[in-house]
Design goal:
Order of helices and strands: HHHHHHHHHHHHHH
Largest sheet: none
Amino acid sequence: MIKDCHDAEGLMQLLEEHRRSFDIIHVGVSWRRLAWMQDAGAPLVEGVVMPKLLTEKLMARALAVAGDFKPHDVGSILWALATLGVAPEPRLLAAMQRRALATEHDFIAQNVAMLLWALATMGIEPEPALLRVMQRRAIATAGDFDPQNVSMVLWALATMGIDPQPRLLKAMQRQAMVTAGLFIPQNVANVLWAMACFDTSPSHISVLFVECMAARILSMREQLGVEEMTQIHQWLLFCDLHPEWRGKLPRSMREVEEEHGVAFREALATASCTTSRLQV
């Protein structure tokens, strides 16, 4: 029934009618449905009161069933909240982090990626214990990571200003090389931008990783958007300022710089101008 709701008013009515029987599955599907409505441009509400009231009631119901949360529930609900721009109620956030710690061995690649991405998007720094556990699970499940998962984890850690454990960074770089042919421009740009944020020195694997990403950029010449160009340009600027990377930048990445350098600089200038206008 929840999946048949096309606006928040219908979802609110369903919640009112079946509130006592709303279990963790219903709560999770409801949050994801709201996020889908927003992504799809569907009308969330008719008035101003409805979204706040609905999110408060869903938050309260989520807290009531938080003891049943499994890794999928934690990851997907946090993802939905981040997508909607709704900060989790502090008690719910604490309960989610406790459940993540209690069920750590059941976390799969997608759960880890969604959890870290959501926390970073909402500007929430995870508890140190949770961060250690999620990095450990990412290492353990690295072979199951797809390009989006790799991109989300590295972007999230960089956004939170957290350097990944060395084993995790190597695992993500290896998986990126294995799945390089499936990377889309946003994935490539996010991982290169994250590499610059981590201020990493070149190693054998990191140089090979950069070479793979450069080859992927060159294969998607016409697909790069302004945001991706800006991020890649920031990575190239980092390399220009890093004495070790300057001497070890792969030929393919130099080709990227030669072929797209002007466009990258223009994209960065455009992004800077837009930001300046927004801040005025």
